[in-house]
Amino acid sequence: MSTTSKREKLLQGVNYAALLLAGLICLFPFFYVLSVSFTPAAEVVRRGVVLIPEQITLYAYNQVLQGYGLGNAYQVTLFRTLVGTGLNLVFTILMAYALSKKSLPGRAPLLMIVIFTMLFNGGLIPTYLLTRYLGLLDTVWALIVPGLISAFNLIIVKGFFEQLPQEIEESAKVDGAGDMRVLWRIVLPLSMPVIATIGLFYAVFHWNSYFDGIMYIRDQQLYPLQVVLRNILLNFQTQTADAVSDTTLPASFLSIQMAAVMLSTVPILLVYPFLQRHFAKGVLLGSVKG
């Protein structure tokens, strides 16, 4: 008995050590990026890999924040993330609730159409032409409307709705509640895990997306954050290539890169702890049924 207990404790200790090592390996890149973003260029040249800076400077952040319209970019990205995620959730939930009902006429063909869009799409040029035809070019709605519903997230929410007890909805309808009242008062409160999960999916997509901003937006005042940061990095990369003889410029460019990465990732990372308790549960429950 004691031998088994010692063996279990040893195995548990090995598991904890392995998990701790894996966690440190995952945190190392983030910690390195954070450290280099606060490190002077001369120190980066002298030390190479910097984990704890000897001196702390905000030079890289000042370079990123000054003169590149970052304030407008944050406003555009916040509007896109908040409004876009809200509209994504509304349309995804409404369509998923309808498709979760087996009595819906034409349910099977609609599901086939949804699944078909997961495998094939119209292509870049037809999507651009459609966006232009709808008059969305050079508007923030060009960043929201084309991706209003994700087929993957729709399938997850539909599977979650199908697992809810049908007796609760039937009893509510017997009392005179309509479909929208059932959805609002009964289904949504029971579906907070999956709603939080796909809400995080949509929010991360909107925050990190930059390609549609390059494709559909020409007005620099409407550039989202990721496009502005990309332009900043390209400008400093060009300056670095033009001044090869100065050894501090590549290190300065590296610090500016890291500062741009921190500015673009930290805000969305701050949202995750509030949704963490719903995240794993929502994904697992919503993906059991297809």
Q: Topology of this protein?
A:
Elements: H1 2-37, H2 41-47, H3 59-65, H4 70-99, H5 107-119, H6 124-133, H7 151-163, H8 166-174, H9 179-190, H10 192-208, H11 211-216, H12 225-242, H13 248-286
Quick synopsis:
The protein is mainly α and 290 residues long. The chain has 13 helices and no strands.
Main sheet, how many strands, which sense, barrel?
none
Order of helices and strands: HHHHHHHHHHHHH
C-alpha end-to-end distance: 46 Å
Judging from the principal axes of the Cα atoms, what is the shape?
flat
CATH architecture: Orthogonal Bundle
Helical fraction: over 70%
Question: Which parts are unreliable, with pLDDT below 50 for 5 consecutive residues or more?
Answer: 286-290
Helix-strand category: mainly alpha
Query: Rg to the nearest angstrom?
Result: 25 Å
Pfam family, one: BPD_transp_1
Membrane topology: Multi-pass membrane protein
Keywords: Cell membrane, Membrane, Transmembrane, Transmembrane helix, Transport
Domain ABC transmembrane type-1: 74-275
Question: What this model shows, in words?
Answer:
It contains 13 helices and no strands. The protein is mostly helical. It has one domain (71-286): Orthogonal Bundle (MetI-like fold). Helix 2 (41-47) crosses helix 13. Residues 286-290 have low confidence and may be disordered.
